[in-house]
Write a structure and sequence with these properties.
heterotrimer, A mainly alpha (200), B alpha+beta (206), C mainly alpha (211), A: 200 residues, mainly alpha, 74% helix, globular, C: 211 residues, two-stranded antiparallel sheet, 9 helices, 68% helix
Chain lengths: 200, 206, 211
């Protein structure tokens, strides 16, 4: 691939992971925290940033673990456990670092970090990276894009739900029900992006 | 409290549990490993045979597939530019060219059979895909694959063209799958790229 | 003698009363993606039941020994163990299905429900009871997924388990392609949740004497 083609290929991966192959709206990952933390834009933004940050770094770390530890020994099936351990350890480490060096950042971002360990989107991004056989750069771009896409989805959802605070929603739909419907409409809207890049 | 009260107990415990579980998993992995590689190999061989004008009984089991494959198909070499050769009694009947590329969801891998004249397609088959069931996933169905039988590769790219379902076809085009634009486009693209490279190599053996 | 929960109570609570998906919409993450086909959902449901029941049993077996400080790590390890066993078995004996389910079987490990059951129940109850609790929690969860899958495959592809159904695969029914795509899953689950919640709310009102 020529350098130009390569850049384009990476841009396509980035675009796809944010819009058309959105890890939440198209792949259903990260729903737990999505449904519970999407009431206010402020918290959504905080959690979103945390997810982007963790996802980008853990896909890189997981890539190394897969290529240089699991594959050489033929124990690829251990990736589930190893990836989770790496993610948990990374989050723990970052939380301690942020708490120590920047209390301000900790208030805005750090408090969300424990929520991230149980976010299946983080593990999911690494698993998809393995399935699609991405190299390191493609993997990191994909991880960043997936995180950004997740953040986009949750912030948009929070914005919409804030506006719905005064709407009269039937009792059975309040909470998870209406959130799922909004998510469905958003997923529908995002499918419209499929035609934007013909190179996809 | 005794043992449990010691500070090193949690670490030892974790260690023992991890070791036991890992040991069982590795044992299990080794038992199933052979099967997993066999499955993949058989899927590949089945696709190669399906793409060629080989008489493959529909209920053929893995052993049968493997035997037919061994009896009639040669491995790819330099002269065939990556394609298998289908030989019957020392004479070449067709080539089977494996192709793969990025589908919409995951890699798509298949085989295209081209007859001795290097133009006529004998068939295509897929051995790995993970596209949307009901849409992109339809590429493995006979309605889609049998379109390719008898088509001729064009002289210039696209050697095989994917047209909308309403268009009229000629001898070098097939219908794409309605509602699976992405899968069809991508498949068309990498199929043609690989066909192009193969043709170049075959026409100019140097 | 400490009053032990009768098995019947455990079963009923796990499937209906405490049904995680109805009450808390937990852990739908991994599973919605495979609900476009009933067959895939059945296998996924089996995976969840297998994992929840056996990990509940194992966690409960070890509960007197497991130090509190590493309790969650041990739970994750045990859950991961059973998931990997299932995933590897699938890969070896049904490779096509393994490919269809993709990473979603592995993602069962992060499924909030299984961890939740281990934490809430298996840690404090005997092994056999924990097994039953896990079994029926998993079943309740699988049932909801099946409901979504039946609706999606029937309306979207006109078939069930790959077999074309009488009215829905005929020319009279214009297939709802949206059901084949992600939004379809969201909408279907939303409607099911709506129905379940409304029934539950009505029941609660009746119980409280119409207050």
């Amino acid at each position: 691939m020529t350098p130009g083609n390569h850049m384009l290929h990476l841009l396509v991966i980035l675009f796809a992971s944010i819009f058309t192959d959105n890890i939440l709206l198209a792949r259903f990952l990260g729903m737990c925290s999505f449904l519970s933390v999407s009431r206010q834009v402020k918290t959504a933004v905080g959690l979103g940033f945390a997810v982007v940050f963790v996802m980008t770094f853990t896909t890189a770390l997981d890539w190394f673990a897969y290529r240089h530890v699991l594959q050489p020994y033929g124990i690829e099936y251990f990736r589930f456990i190893l990836f989770i351990i790496i993610i948990a350890a990374f989050v723990q480490f970052i939380e301690m670092a942020i708490e120590r060096y920047s209390p301000a950042l900790y208030q805005n971002l750090g408090i969300f970090l424990p929520l991230i360990t149980v976010n299946c989107a983080i593990l999911g991004a690494s698993l998809f990276m393995v399935i699609r056989d991405y190299n390191l750069i493609e993997g990191v771009v994909f991880g960043f894009g997936s995180g950004a896409g997740w953040m986009l989805a949750i912030v948009t959802m929070a914005g919409i739900r804030e506006k719905l605070n005064n709407a009269r929603i039937p009792r059975g739909l309040q909470g998870p029900g209406i959130t799922l419907i909004i998510a469905g409409l958003m997923a529908l809207a995002f499918i419209g992006f499929t035609g934007v890049l013909s190179g996809q | 409290m005794g043992l449990r009260g010691k500070t090193w107990f949690p670490i030892l415990y974790m260690f023992i549990v991890t070791l036991t579980l890992s040991a069982i998993l590795i044992l299990f992995g080794n038992i199933t490993r052979q099967r997993v590689t066999n499955n993949e190999r058989i899927a590949y061989e089945r696709a190669v045979l399906r793409a060629l004008p080989v008489d493959l009984p529909s209920g053929a089991g893995p052993a049968q597939i493997h035997n037919i494959f061994l009896a009639n198909i040669t491995d790819p070499d330099e002269k065939s530019a990556g394609a298998h050769r289908y030989m019957v009694e020392d004479s070449l009947l067709a080539y089977a060219l494996p192709f793969e590329g990025a589908g919409f969801w995951a890699p798509i891998k298949g085989v295209i059979g081209i007859s001795r004249d290097r133009k006529t397609i004998t068939g295509i088959a897929f051995y790995e895909q993970n596209e949307t069931p009901g849409l992109g996933g339809e590429i493995v169905k006979t309605e889609f694959t049998r379109q390719f039988v008898g088509k001729k590769l064009a002289m210039t790219p696209p050697y095989i063209e994917f047209l909308p379902a309403t268009a009229t076809l000629d001898e070098s085009s097939v219908h794409a799958i309605t509602g699976a634009t992405q899968t069809s486009n991508r498949l068309g693209k990498f199929m043609n790229t690989i066909l192009g490279t193969w043709r170049e190599h075959m026409d100019d053996p140097q | 003698m400490m009053p032990q929960k009768s098995t019947k109570d455990v079963v009923l609570t796990a499937v209906w009363g405490d049904n995680p998906v109805f009450r808390q919409i937990l852990g739908i993450c991994s599973a919605l993606a495979v609900t476009n086909l009933v067959l895939n959902t059945l296998v996924m449901g089996l995976a969840v039941v297998f994992t929840t029941a056996l990990s509940g049993f194992t966690v409960s077996l070890l509960r007197k020994w497991t130090p509190r400080v590493i309790r969650m790590m041990i739970e994750v390890l045990i859950i991961a163990f059973y998931v990997i066993l299932f995933d590897q078995t699938l890969k070896a004996y049904w490779p096509e299905m393994s490919r269809n389910l993709g990473p979603y079987v592995g993602l069962i490990i992060t499924n909030c429900i299984i961890m939740g059951r281990a934490e809430a129940f298996a840690n404090a109850n005997p092994p056999l009871l924990s097994f039953v609790d896990g079994l029926f929690s998993g079943l309740g969860y699988a049932l909801v997924l099946l409901a979504v899958a039946v609706i999606r495959e029937l309306l979207g592809m006109g078939s069930l388990l790959g077999i074309p159904m009488p009215l829905f695969s005929s020319a009279l029914w214009d297939r709802w392609i949206i059901m084949v795509m992600p939004p379809g899953a969201f909408f279907t689950l939303a409607i099911i949740v709506w129905l379940a919640r409304t029934i539950q709310v009505d029941k609660d009102i009746k119980k409280q004497g119409g207050k």
